[in-house]
Design a protein that fits this description.
By secondary structure, the protein is of the alpha+beta class. It has four domains: 87 residues, conserved putative lor/sdh protein from methanococcus maripaludis s2 fold (Beta Barrel); 104 residues, Efflux pump adaptor protein, beta barrel domain (Elongation Factor Tu (Ef-tu), domain 3, Beta Barrel), CATH 2.40.30; 38 residues, no CATH class; 76 residues, Orthogonal Bundle (Helix Hairpins). The chain has three helices and 21 strands. The strands form four sheets. Strands 2-9-12-11-10-13 form a six-stranded antiparallel barrel. It is elongated. The termini are close together.
């Protein structure tokens, strides 16, 4: 069996939780015009930059609308020019009493009406140009594309059909709840500085991603007694993925002179956590302990073990209180029941059954 040592070191003051990876932006992409998809410019799951071209919708119907609106405008401008000239002529004739005031008023009204018609033509042309521009759909953010909502040739309904979702994952958020009792301390530590948050994937606990706390919810969940926090991570390697579960650790500060034992030394029984300590007489001593936080393979011990003491880290199921332990080599000890002398084989290992 192997042993380790209780050491005194500076550990982090943390609040730990289980978090969920979330996108900073999840942008559903719809079209502002209806029509047929002429071209898809990306592949499913591709990373696209901001303003990257995603879809092209058939713009021919809107081009025809533009041509018609511009033709009407040309016609109505010519009509307006004629009516304006006619109104000016009547204005001169009115001065010599050849034309009546009623004729002049009628001519001026026709000019005003035609001016409004020209403005309407221009508005129709502007709308047609906008619709043509809307036929080119670009990504509003940089991110990963989802599966196609429609393929080439599909018919799109304006402002209704969802074509895809672009998830912004660089940077990315991790949302995690913490108990309401932790909130006052978090708020106190937030004053004047940004708190660090670490996120570890279940299969890589020793390779945490480092980010910063960016959000504290404005209310506590009255049913769970928890408050939601969010941290932001650069995620340059795209290891964090929307929907993943991670272990989130909010770092509040440092705690010096803390007793830490190897995580493998800690056992759990009906009365709580315990360890076996090798005392000065080389005997196994049962110790009930009070645990703090677990970090980087070590466990904070608030009570029950002192710095410098030796603890058993493997084979605890073979130990009982008072068993003698014999040092087998560097970092190794072997348990011997009280009153028995440990026998060794020629190879240096205990015979079977011991």
């Amino acid at each position: 069996m192997t042993v380790g040592h209780a050491v005194q070191e500076t550990v982090l003051e943390v609040v730990q939780s289980l978090g969920t990876v979330q996108t900073v932006n999840a942008m559903p992409i719809t079209s502002r015009v209806g029509g047929q998809i002429r071209k898809v410019h990306f592949t499913e799951g591709q990373f696209v930059e901001k303003d990257a071209l995603l879809f092209t919708i058939d713009s021919d119907p809107f081009q025809e609308q533009l041509n018609q609106a511009e033709a009407f405008r040309t016609r109505d401008l010519a009509r307006l020019k004629f009516l304006t000239t006619e109104a000016k002529r009547l204005e001169q004739l009115k001065k010599t009493d050849v034309a009546s005031q009623s004729d002049l008023d009628r001519a001026l009204a026709e000019v005003a009406a035609m001016e409004a018609t020209v403005l309407a033509d221009e508005a129709e042309a502007k709308q047609a140009r906008l619709n043509i521009a809307f036929c080119t759909i670009q990504s509003p953010v940089a991110g990963r594309t989802s599966a196609y909502g429609l393929n080439e040739g599909g018919i799109v309904e304006a402002n209704k059909t969802q074509l895809l979702v672009v998830n912004q994952i660089k940077p990315i958020h991790v949302a995690f709840p913490v108990p309401e009792r932790s909130l006052p301390e978090i708020q106190r530590r937030m004053k004047g500085r940004t708190l660090e948050v670490r996120a570890s994937l279940p299969d890589a606990p020793d390779k945490p991603h480092v980010g910063k706390l960016v959000f504290v919810d404005n209310a506590i969940d009255t049913q769970s007694g928890m408050i939601l926090l969010k941290a932001e991570f650069p995620n340059d390697d795209e290891t964090l993925w929307p929907g993943q579960f991670v272990h989130a650790t909010l770092v509040l500060g440092e705690k010096p002179d803390t007793v830490v034992v190897p995580e493998a030394a800690v056992q759990h029984g009906q009365k709580g956590a315990y360890v076996f300590v090798v005392n000065s007489e080389m005997a196994a001593e049962f110790r009930q302990i009070t645990l703090g936080v677990t970090q980087d393979g070590g466990v904070e011990v608030l009570a029950g073990v002192k710095a410098g003491e030796t603890v058993v880290t493997d084979g605890q199921n073979k130990l009982k209180k008072g068993f003698k332990v014999k040092v087998k080599g560097a970092g190794q000890e072997q348990a011997t029941p009280p009153g028995e002398k440990k026998q060794e084989s020629a190879s240096g290992k205990a015979p079977p059954g011991n």
